[in-house]
Amino acid sequence: MKIKSFILSRSERVGFVNEENNLMASEKLREPRRKEPKQISFRVSEQEYEKLKQSAETLNMSVPAFVKKKAEGSRLVTPKFDKETRQTIVRELSGIANNTNQIAKVLNTKYVNEQDLNRNLQALRNEVNQLWQQLK
């Protein structure tokens, strides 16, 4: 009898879950944990969906995110460049940054002929100017 009472008192202190607590815990697990728990669904025609999809892609957004922003009354600004042009600009900027880093490394490690430095800096300026003209 002492062993049984010891086990019961021990189980109460440790906090074994009884069936009622277990049921409440499982119900909480079933509830979705979302920042925005409400969902709105509506149907659109194929043509309307394609228009929404195209607008969303132009802004680099998903269709649901685009529709939500529009419903909130947000003013969405169309980018000046399409996706391919933006990727090209990023690649060119990356190349310019790489060239600049190479110039800095050479300047910090050894003596450089002034004419070579000016030639490299002028080439870098030309690349930046070409890119700047594309951005205008």
Overall description:
By secondary structure, the chain is an all-alpha fold. Among the domains are: 41-79, no CATH class; 83-135. It is built from six helices and no strands. It has helices at residues 2-14, 19-30, 46-58, 63-71, 83-109, 114-135. Helix 3 (46-58) crosses helix 4 (63-71) and helix 5 packs antiparallel against helix 6. It is flat, with a radius of gyration of 32 Å. It starts with a helix and ends with a helix.
Brief rundown of the structure:
This protein is 71% helix and 0% strand.
User: Per the principal axes of the C-alpha atoms, what is the gross shape?
Assistant: flat
Largest sheet: none
- The share of residues in helices is over 70%
Q: Note the gap between the termini.
A: 90 Å
Layout of helices and strands, plus pairs?
Layout: H1 2-14, H2 19-30, H3 46-58, H4 63-71, H5 83-109, H6 114-135
Helix pairs in contact: 3-4, 5-6
Features of the shown structure:
single chain; 136 residues; mainly alpha; 6 helices; 71% helix; flat
